[in-house]
């Protein structure tokens, strides 16, 4: 397991036909040698699994990667609140490599697709 910083950028969509590098997330998570999320690594280092949401001119949001009661993974910005949680579709099944895609249901309830821009 190695902690990695993953940058997600908004993929092509109706509002952004070319995608957008100024709308997305940067988060830190443990990945195995194949780029898969490591839940045991998260358990050991959950304090270090942080997220930064950047969305154009809106203020940045900072939070953490959590495992919800519903057995899902999500970004959370307010401790012990669920209204702000942003579930990540099949997070534990993704391969985090450049040009792969991830879907996140954001605050507004809309599921958007993001492209993995980098893994460092």
Brief synopsis:
The protein is mainly beta and about 120 residues long. It contains 1 helix and 8 strands; from the N terminus they run E-E-H-E-E-E-E-E-E. It has one helix at about 40-45; strands at about 1-10, 20-30, 50-55, 60-65, 75, 85, 100-105, 110-120.
- Element pattern in H and E: EEHEEEEEE
Strand tally: 8
- The pLDDT mean sits at 94
Number of domains: 1
- The share of residues in helices is under 10%
Largest sheet: spatial strand order: 6-5-4-3-2-1-8-7
Q: Given the C-alpha coordinates, what overall shape results?
A: globular
Q: Give the end-to-end Cα distance, rounded to a whole number of Å.
A: 13 Å
Would you give an account of this structure?
The chain is mainly beta and 120 residues long. Helix content is 6%, strand content 48%. The protein has an 8-stranded antiparallel sheet with strand order 6-5-4-3-2-1-8-7. The two termini are 13 Å apart. 25% of the residues are buried. The mean pLDDT is 94.
């Amino acid at each position: 397991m190695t902690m990695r910083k993953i940058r997600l950028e908004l993929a092509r969509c109706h509002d952004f036909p070319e995608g957008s590098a100024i709308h997305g997330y940067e988060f830190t998570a443990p990945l195995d040698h194949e780029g898969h999320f490591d839940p045991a690594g998260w358990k050991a280092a959950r304090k270090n699994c942080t997220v930064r949401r950047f969305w154009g001119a809106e203020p940045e949001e900072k939070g953490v990667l959590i495992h919800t009661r519903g057995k899902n993974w999500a970004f959370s910005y307010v401790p012990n609140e669920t209204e702000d949680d942003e579930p990540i579709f099949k997070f534990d099944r993704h391969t985090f490599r450049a040009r792969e895609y991830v879907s996140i249901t954001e605050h507004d309830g809309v599921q958007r697709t993001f492209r993995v821009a980098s893994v460092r």
